[in-house]
Design a protein that fits this description.
This protein is mainly α. It is 71% helix and 5% strand.
Length: 313
């Protein structure tokens, strides 16, 4: 373990970090990731100019990520075990996923389309001003499935591998990909390093997340989720979002992907899953899938730690 901690200690600290997130939710003021985003925006404005954009993007990534990661590493070494759990709490976003998506489900259940559109616009970049119930349900379910990996399982994977500083490294790299990893004129070169590093850090966690969705699918959906993963994921431009979203949609037994509107332009995306079009209730089902996968990871982490401890006793 890169953290230097015994496996059982690390697993228990992981449980503590998850419990803190569920109990407290996102920090309302002075959230470290909010401050990081502001620093990243400042670096991008200063460095994303002139030539050598890929090199400038690498410099910006290094200046943004390495200092806080090294600081987290030092804090873990000097501050004791509680620092690991506290850093995981700041990095993980399980309750945030629930708090941002279940209100969309509630609004759709009440038939309040205007509120559902407003709530959905807070979490996705696609246009929602004319979206119908199925469009909003699809956006909410997709956000839950994909961000289940980015905000929860990828963070847990790197925490189990390296402790608190591993969670910080992953979450900051993932945040920069979300900010800079676009194939637009502005970010195509500058954000390429951020996108590739995130792809590398996320490669194993994304496939473990996809496997978790497959294992937790109900009944006949388990085989369907596996087949959707293998057949549909390669069609997505993102090497990590494809497996996660395809397996999740298959596990839910619904059709996601397809048409979505960005900046007034309709984009035809590859299909995800199989079955009827998404409905409001599928947002709740997607949340329950992410929640059960979180419980599965916690149980497996504890069992694996006990086994490893027994093997080295």
């Amino acid at each position: 373990m890169l953290s230097g901690l015994p496996p059982l200690t690390l697993a228990l600290l992981m449980l503590a970090g998850v419990a803190l997130d569920l109990l407290l939710g996102e920090a309302r003021r002075w959230h470290p990731l909010v401050g990081f985003g502001r620093v990243a925006s400042l670096l991008e404005r200063r460095l994303n100019v002139g030539g050598m954009r890929i090199g400038r993007g690498l410099l910006a990534w290094t200046l943004a990520v390495l200092p806080p990661t090294l600081l987290a590493c030092g804090a873990c070494a000097l501050g004791g075990l509680a620092v690991h759990a506290l850093l995981l709490y700041f990095c993980i976003g399980l309750r945030s996923l629930r708090d941002h998506t279940l209100p969309i489900h509630a609004a759709l259940l009440d038939g309040d389309l205007a509120r559902a559109r407003w709530l959905t616009a807070r979490i996705v970049s696609r246009d929602t001003d004319r979206a119908g119930e199925s469009d909003l349900a699809k956006a909410g379910a997709e956000s839950l499935l994909e961000n289940g990996n980015d905000a929860v399982f990828g963070t847990l994977f790197w925490f189990l591998l390296a402790g608190g500083w591993g969670a910080v490294l992953f979450r900051l790299a993932n945040t920069l990909d979300a900010m800079w990893g676009y194939r637009s004129e502005r970010f195509n070169l500058f954000g390429r390093v951020a996108a590739r590093i995130d792809d590398a850090l996320n490669y194993v966690p994304a496939r473990l997340t996809a496997l978790s969705y497959v294992l937790l699918a109900s009944g006949g959906n388990r085989l369907r989720a596996w087949r959707c993963w293998r057949a549909q994921a390669p069609r997505w431009s993102s090497p990590n979002a494809g497996p996660v979203m395809a397996s999740g949609a298959g596990a839910l037994g619904v059709s996601l992907g397809g048409a979505a509107t960005y900046g007034g332009e309709v984009e035809q995306r590859p299909p995800l899953g199989a079955g009827p079009a998404a409905a409001g209730a599928d947002i709740l089902r997607a949340w329950r899938l992410v929640w059960r996968a979180t419980l599965l990871w916690c149980v497996l982490a504890l069992v694996g730690a006990v086994i490893l401890g027994a093997m080295h006793a």
